[in-house]
Amino acid sequence: MRRAIYPGSFDPVTNGHLDVIARAAKLFDEVIVAVAVNDQKRGLFTADERTALIRGAVAGWKNVRVSRFDGLLVEFASAQGATAVVRGLRAVSDFEFEFQMALMNRKLDEQIETIFLMPAENYTYLSSRIVKEISRLGGNVDAFVPASVAGALREKLAARPA
Ligand code: ADP
Fold it and tell me: Which ligand 1 atom is nearest residue 15's CA?
């Protein structure tokens, strides 16, 4: 059983993340999307909301599971019986941070290999941050996120003071 973990904040999940999940699901028997709970970053959505939005988006994807995690990624990966961590690489700007993290994770547990996947070209400019920004400014994000996420963004931002 080849199992991979795809960790992130997913605040919220975008079509770019889903593209990476779909690619990983072709390579591995099982992909666990791991939603970081005690992230340093203060999110727009709670961990429960972020988890529910991904679950909705991958419902019916047979070999994809969604789980929350806090603590060390390599410990979570090893407890789940995973041998790989998947990360998405959009541009050179992602590289430095990802490279550092991959090497640090290897130092912590050399059994866990980090695999980088590149999304389809039209998702390379997409990030949760930019989607939130567009949404906050009243723009249409339907092309960038699943419909349920676009709806959740509208609701969340309507409920918040500008
Ligand atoms: P983090 O906050 O840890 O960067 P994110 O949820 O933003 O978590 O992203 C998780 C992973 O998905 C990271 O490896 C990130 O580079 C990747 N990712 C984010 N957006 C995209 C995208 N549009 N295409 C491909 N990979 C992406």
Answer: 23
